Amino acid sequence: MAVGARILVVDDDLDMLHLIGLRLSAAGYQVSEASSGEAALLSFYSNRPQMVLTDLRMGKMDGLALFEHLRLEAPTMPVIILTAHGTIPDAVVATQKGVFSFLTKPFNGQELLRRVADAIRLSPSLNPESLAAHWRNELITSSVRMEELLRQALRVSEESQTALLVGPSGSGKESLVQAIRKAGRRAEQPFVGVSCTDYPAPALEEMLSPGSPGNVYAQASGGILFLKDISALSLIAQARLFAVLFAQMQASDPLQRLNSAKQQRTAIDVQVIAASPRPLDAELAEGRFRSDLFYLLSRMTLILPSLNERSEDIPLLANHFLGRIRPEKSLTLSPESLMTLQEGRWPGNVRQLKNVLEQVAELSLTPVIPESAIRRVMRELEEDSLAAFDDARREFERDYLVRLLQATAGNVSQAARVAQRNRTEFYKLLARHGLDPINFKQKFR
Q: Where is 248: in which H helix or E strand?
């Protein structure tokens, strides 16, 4: 049993509510009680329990409706439903929808504790102050949405699952994959990160071929392979990655293991985690991303929110960054400064917030940072981003050309037609960005 685990108990029968609460408290759990579904939602947001135990039949919001609300916020959190004998069919339907378990009243006390212990084992504590939570130290949050994301990340780590991280630039995908690494058995093993936009298609195809010298699987053996901007892979590279992941899936299947000892021997011991700044729907629809590879990658998809979607974390993050940037100054933010930060637009997400605070800390002459300093730096950065429009356009243009050459295997005539440019103009574009079509030619295989 996880001593001290947080449990929310919900029942509109106050006697039953207190009885269950006392029994769980005596077993060492931290118990919060709520006498309605509405009160339970408020308690959930403030206490962030590891599991919920709720009666099925209640007033305005019954246990199933409460479960539906909780599933939207925390889909991996276990929920146990208490039901009378007459409502067992409803409870069976609830388990089919994802409820962890149900108990019929009157229930056996030992059976209650056993079911609760089973649920808690699937929902470990994410308390950032716990000694066991060192793995998440770089992910500062009080957001319910982020806590659910961390619970999913912990499961990815413990089960060594393949995963797909989706989140906008600067939202913390690299921090999350490092947290996954620290939390599991691969913490001391190799970590290899590959940005799929940094290499021409033939180079990536070689890197993702298990038989090639210096392939990334050999470099990351026993550890984690992190593939950033996964949508930039050519279809050939995708096919090679799929073959590796498919072999892993078969090797982990007990039935497949019995039928194929060879499959077991050839499976590669590398945990593959891919990342994309956006969902891959468009790439799938246009045939630029293999659906079978997407299926293997996305069986566990972790979606990182933008900073504006978790604005309640901005004060925590701001104070954390200030403490790291200039610890000798003991800098703090005025209430007005914090409000300005929370009301700001953050297209660059956590990375942009950190950049603002780094500049403010360097310029600050007082221990308390005034609102005026925050506004000045935010305005200057906004002006810089507008002045850098040409740089952004060049970066977009180069990325477009790289993807176009990858898609056409370095065929300039075909690429120029797709880009609706004549060959002379297209060659000038390539020269401007230092791109050589020869590097994108498919090698004879």
A: helix 235-252
Cβ contact 66:40 at 8 Å: yes
Q: How many CB atoms lie within 10 A of CB 18?
A: 14
- Which of these ranges, 55-64, 156-165, 226-235, 299-308, has the smallest mean pLDDT? 55-64
Sheet with 224-228: list strands edge to edge: 191-195, 224-228, 271-276, 163-166, 301-303
Give CA angle at 19 (18, 20), nearest 5°: 90
Rounded-to-integer distance, Cα 314 and Cα 332, Å: 14
In degrees, rounded to 5, the angle at the alpha carbon of residue 412 between the alpha carbons of residues 407 and 418 is: 60
Q: Which residues contact 107 (CB under 8 A, 6 or more apart)?
A: 82
Q: Are 348 and 170 in contact (CB under 8 A)?
A: yes
Query: What stretch of H or E contains 426?
Result: helix 423-432
Structure tokens at 110: 């030992």
Q: Where are the beta strands (DSSP E) in 175-331?
A: 191-195, 224-228, 271-276, 301-303
The CATH fold of domain 6-121: Rossmann fold (3.40.50)
Say whether 198 sits in a helix, a strand or coil.
coil
- What contacts 368, CB < 8 A, 6 or more positions away? 331, 332, 333, 334
Compute the average pLDDT of residues 37-51.
87
Confidence of residue 3 (pLDDT cuts 50, 70, 90): low
Of the candidate ranges 336-345, 385-394, 429-438, the one whose mean pLDDT is the lowest: 385-394
Q: Is CATH 3.40.50.1820 correct for 307-387?
A: no
Report the top-level CATH class of 131-303: alpha beta
Q: Which helix (H) or strand (E) holds 351?
A: helix 349-363
The H or E element that residue 73 is part of is helix 63-73
